Structures are given as structure tokens and as C-alpha cells.
Amino acid sequence: MKTIRNLTLILLAFVAASCSDDEVNYAPLSVTQVTDINHEQVLQSADLAQYIVIQGTGLNAVQSIMFNDIAVDMLEAYVTENEIVLSIPRVIPTNVNNLITLESATETVTVPFEVFVPELQVSGMGNEFALPGEEMTVVGDFFDLYEITTESGQLFFGDQEMEITRAVEDTLYFTLPEDAQAGTQIRIVSELAGERTVPGRYRERGNMLCDYDPFTGWGGGDYICEGPTSDMPDSPDPISGNYSRFKLAEGDAADWDWSNTTTIAMIGVTYDQDILDNPSNYLLKFEVNTLMALTKRQIRFYFSQINYDWEPFASGLAFNTNGEWSTVTIDLSEAWKGDVPADGTLQILGNSYAEDTDICFDNFRIVPKE
């Protein structure tokens, strides 16, 4: 029995020694600085979802990290003794203390740090002239961040609550009522952001300059389109009667040539007097539908003596609505450049040596800013 007892004591001593050898001696927990992912800039603030590097000592002992009151998923962080690489959680905090809080089993360290939360952006309707009973979109940004989704948040067309059928970060989708009335406004409601009115009014005509119903002009009459036909079966379905389909090959005519090939012109356009007196209070709107991406061809809108060159690709990205109608909004002061039209001529031109182009327009109008 004595031999067995001695053997047991020896084994216990061996196990204890082995455990002692496996213990990790952590350095004191500290943070020396926070930098960008490339270690090039020291940061005191950053955006949601931005990758950062926390530098210091004893960081391999950290068990939890909080930005304000939002916890980091430690399984998604890369941790060493002297660095932690992580993405700031893309969640809006409830209690803001402007701190990073790091905790180990025995220590807590805080670092002053501000996380920028973007404002909810509600830009407008994707297509203000979508037909009743069809899909409508509300465009903006950070809808998911503010919990406006198919499961949460609300959307109202006038006083009627609508089902959000699909939601992504920058777009909400719903189906218009069959009896949708022109002039109706859309509202969205978020528990985090409150109620927001979507800019614009459904099918608002305002001061309608040109809807091609009828076409009263010179030049480009062949571009008037009423929808798919046997000759042009790929033409988009109309959203409000006739529209113009502006189709040019790269070398159809000389650059800025005033001809039926490159120009469609309306005459007899009239402007409300207050628009002429106070253009800064108004917006120019129209619907556009691209059947071919626009990457470098300028489209010129000619308001009598005023030339406005529309370049939706100026950011470096091709402009493409992928065969869907989309509403474009331009500040009227920008389009008119501080001037006002001398008469009622509105023309659309394209510089011909740029690229093949297939683009449709409808409902050129001026509406008041909200």
C-alpha cells in the first residue's frame, strides 16, 4: 500500500509540474495606439465597418472588446501579443461613451475613440412615374443599418402602410397600390431614425416642359417612341405615353452636329414666372432608361441659349439603368448656370464620336424643392 501511495504522489507532482509549464505569462494589458490597417496613420476616430489595428502589450489576453456598448466578435479578430486587427462592428450604439474597452480575465483598459455613425440617407423614388400596381423603389443609403427591412421599419404611401417586399442597404422595394394617386408622398419610419418623408411626389408633373404627348418640335421626330413595335421590339414599355429613344452609333454624324441624326427638339416650351424669377427654388427632373451603358458620350440639354452637358458617368462609373426607367434630379440653378432661357426651345443632343448610345427620355419637368 505504501508503494502505491508513493506512486500516486509522484504522478500528482508530475501533472502539477506539467500544468505549470503550460501556463501563459501575459504581459500587462496596455494600448499604445490605434492605427489604420496599413499602420500608416494614428487614429482617434473611424467609421463603422472600418478595419483598424489596436497596438499595445498583453493583447493576447484580451477576451472582449467593446466600441461604445457594441461588442466585437472575437472570432473575427486577428490577435497577437502586440496587435489586434479587427473591423468595427456595423451596428449603431445605444449608449455612446466614445471609448474602446478591452477586458482580460484580470484587467480592463479603455481608450478614447470616436466611431462615426452615418446619417440615414433618403434620396427619393427610383422612378417617380412607375405605373400603379407596379414595383416602386425608394433609394438612399444605410436602410439596413437603421433597421428598415422586410422584418422591421415601416413604409407608407400616403396614409396607406405598404409591405416592404425587399430591402438592401441602398434600396427599399414595394408594390404601388392599383389606385395610386398622383401627388402622393411616401414616408418611412425607423425606430432608430424616426419618420422621414421621401423627397418628391408620385407622378408630379409640375411645370411639364416636354412629355412628347404630343411631340411639337423640329428635328428628331423619328426618335419618338410609343413602346415596343414590330420594328423595334426591344423598346421599353412606356410609363406615360410617348417618349424619345435616342439611338446613335459612334460615328453617325459630326460632333455636335445639328441634324435629325443627333438632335431631338421641342418648341413652345413655357415656364412659370416664379421659376424664371427664382430658379434656385426649383429642380429639373426627367425619367431616363438606358438600353446600353453610357460611359463617355455627353448628352447636351439646350435651353434656348443655355447649354447643360449631362455627364452621369463623371464619377468614373458607367451610367446604366439596365432597361429600367429611373428618375434623374438636377438642381435647376446648376442646369441654367445662373441664366434663364430666352425662349421656349428645348433640345437634346449627343456628341457623336464618343460611343454607341441607346437611351430613352421622358417627362422633362420643373418642380419646386420640398
Are there runs of 5+ residues with pLDDT below 50, and where? 1-21
Cα-based radius of gyration, to the nearest Å? 31 Å
Strand content: 35-45%
Enumerate how many helices there are, as a single number: 3
Q: What characteristic shape results from the CA principal axes?
A: elongated
Residue-averaged pLDDT, rounded?
90
Describe the structure.
The structure is a single chain. With 370 residues, the chain is mostly beta strands. The chain has helices spanning 2-22, 273-277, 332-336; strands spanning 30-36, 45-47, 51-57, 64-67, 70-71, 78-79, 83-87, 99-103, 108-112, 114-116, 121-125, 135-141, 154-157, 160-162, 166-168, 171-175, 186-190, 194-197, 207-210, 224-225, 243-248, 263-266, 282-290, 299-303, 306-310, 326-331, 346-350, 357-368. The strands form seven sheets. Strands 19, 20, 21, 23, 26 and 28 form a six-stranded antiparallel sheet that branches.
Topology:
Layout: H1 2-22, E1 30-36, E2 45-47, E3 51-57, E4 64-67, E5 70-71, E6 78-79, E7 83-87, E8 99-103, E9 108-112, E10 114-116, E11 121-125, E12 135-141, E13 154-157, E14 160-162, E15 166-168, E16 171-175, E17 186-190, E18 194-197, E19 207-210, E20 224-225, E21 243-248, E22 263-266, H2 273-277, E23 282-290, E24 299-303, E25 306-310, E26 326-331, H3 332-336, E27 346-350, E28 357-368
Parallel strand pairs: 2-10
Antiparallel strand pairs: 1-3, 3-7, 4-5, 4-8, 6-7, 8-9, 11-12, 12-16, 13-14, 13-17, 15-16, 17-18, 19-28, 20-21, 21-28, 22-27, 23-26, 23-28, 24-25, 24-27
